Amino acid sequence: MNEYIFEKKSVGHYQETRNSLIGSEYSSKLAPWLANGCISIREIYFKTKEYEKKHSASESTKVFIDELFWRDYNKFWFMRYKGKAFSSYGIYDREYYDW
Hints:
The protein is mainly alpha-helical. The protein has helices spanning 2-7, 14-17, 31-35, 41-55, 59-81.
């Protein structure tokens, strides 16, 4: 995280490179660390805010923070609805109506 944000300053051009997968400069590559609980979204958020104080906020840092928020939202949404998210009617308790 420190390398991505502070050393290489890659978060400053995240918006242009976020959908590319090959190479160390493309996307943040933080997903496995987040998924395994080795690092928290809050920690990344506050480090990004620290970066913005030093190097000014940009559209890329705003997009990066927005992606962190969506990741956090989806995590808690799936914790709330669990397996219902994959049922025929999604999270809604509906029955099949034969029209």
